[in-house]
Amino acid sequence: KAGVTQTPRYLIKTRGQQVTLSCSPISGHRSVSWYQQTPGQGLQFLFEYFSETQRNKGNFPGRFSGRQFSNSRSEMNVSTLELGDSALYLCASSPTGGPPYNSPLHFGNGTRLTVT
Amino acid sequence: EDQVTQSPEALRLQEGESSSLNCSYTVSGLRGLFWYRQDPGKGPEFLFTLYSAGEEKEKERLKATLTKKESFLHITAPKPEDSATYLCAVQPNDYKLSFGAGTTVTVRA
Hints:
heterodimer; A: seven-stranded mixed sheet; B: mainly beta; 0% helix
């Protein structure tokens, strides 16, 4: 079974630009979550989608947004990039995610975003 | 606010030298506690889920335990391939997973 696939693996952008990251979950998984990982803050929850609906959201500004398509694939977008947005962005999928089950997350290898 | 604290930050072990990693937490209702392993340049890999105090899970040289305030990950007779960063995460009532900063384990041959 193929794992979670994230594209691209690396991305370099300039301040003020916007970026779109893509995630293909494990086949059959309907929940997709996004996380930001930085050396200072660790892994922080961005948002979770289930059946094309945002089901949960972390404490990030509105510049961070996402969506999920009918085939469960997901994209996240960051607009007006700031230097502090440089991070590893991780996507994770699970069969159901939140209630009523606590399924473990299966992570992709991330997209390394560098903002200059 | 939910908090997850892992200690120590880093651990250097000799091959075969057993040790324990700690994850202490304060959370509004614990739905589950997860342990992950992360290798450099890769995403976290799921190890265990613990749901209630007293629960234990084992996998090869790893054993995870849970109390009402903390979890331990015991590494028995580690090998160099056990070198990684180990992450603890708690899932509270709102299902927003909170991760600790991790413990980086280095096992020397």
